[in-house]
Specification:
With about 190 residues, the chain is mostly helical. It is built from six helices and no strands.
Length: about 190
């Protein structure tokens, strides 16, 4: 609802429609990260239970590498497909099409960071650390996004709304890496 209020304020109904397109497409892209996190959780949990710190470290490093590769690929793909996706959903209105394509090109940069926060939350759940997992998810989706969507449009206008998800995902990823570093120092994984 907060996004819709801000979108109506800065771009009217076209802003809400453009954001709707971005969210549909974003669900497809984020599904890869969610699927990977859910798929690796039992393996991580097994090695955690077996107290195999070396394998946990290896899984974390390999996972972050895979996510980094997927992230860069997704951004490249999203940039290349911005106009074709816009045509599929909003070709009937040139102004809406232009807003959707330009907004999606910014919004798509969030794919660079999204996977790390999603995996990080799943990683800590698999390690039976629900508090850290919940903290990453809560801050990512509620605190960081809310702050960004309220503050960035004041400076950047409508582009601030598109950048808000990028900045929120970046902040969540940095938080994830901070927790991983703290846990690695304490527990060795």
């Amino acid at each position: 609802m907060l996004y819709n209020v801000q979108l109506l304020k800065y771009a009217g109904e076209n802003g809400v429609a453009a954001y709707g397109v971005m969210m549909y497409v974003s669900m497809l892209f984020s599904a890869a990260f969610i699927g990977y996190s859910v798929g690796t959780a039992p393996v991580i949990g097994f090695h955690f239970g077996a107290q195999d710190r070396g394998e946990l470290h290896s899984l974390r490093v390999k996972s972050f590498t895979i996510i980094a590769c997927f992230s860069v690929s997704m951004v490249i793909l999203a940039q290349a497909l911005a106009a074709p996706i816009g045509r599929i959903f909003v070709s009937y209105d040139r102004e809406l099409f232009d807003l959707t394509v330009s907004g999606f090109r910014i919004f798509a940069l969030s794919f660079l960071f999204m996977g790390f926060a999603i995996f990080g939350s799943g990683f800590f759940t698999a390690l039976s650390d629900g508090l850290t997992s919940a903290l990453i998810s809560f801050l990512r989706t509620l605190v960081f996004e809310t702050a960004c969507v309220l503050l960035l449009p004041l400076v950047l206008g409508i582009n601030g709304i598109w950048w808000s998800i990028v900045i929120a995902e970046l902040m969540a990823s940095l938080l994830c890496f901070l927790f991983v570093a703290l846990k690695k120092k304490k527990f060795g994984y």
